[in-house]
Design a protein that fits this description.
Blueprint lengths: L6 E3 L4 H10 L6 E3 L10 H4 L10
Length: 56
């Protein structure tokens, strides 16, 4: 893996996944993202007319 990239974990099992990656010897930066803390961006928002034809 290139040293110029970061890893983004988009899952609720952050700690377990990060530990597995570290155990594999990966030293890249690891960031966490979970959209459950962004209630304004749930799928009902994607169903609005503004998104029609853009979301598949």
């Amino acid at each position: 893996m290139s040293a110029n990239c970061a890893i983004f974990i988009c899952n609720s099992y952050y700690d377990e996944i990060e530990k597995q990656l570290r155990d594999m010897g990966i030293k890249n930066p690891i960031e966490r993202f979970n959209d459950e803390f962004m209630p304004s961006f749930h799928f009902t928002r994607l169903e609005s007319d503004a998104w029609k034809g853009q979301v598949k």
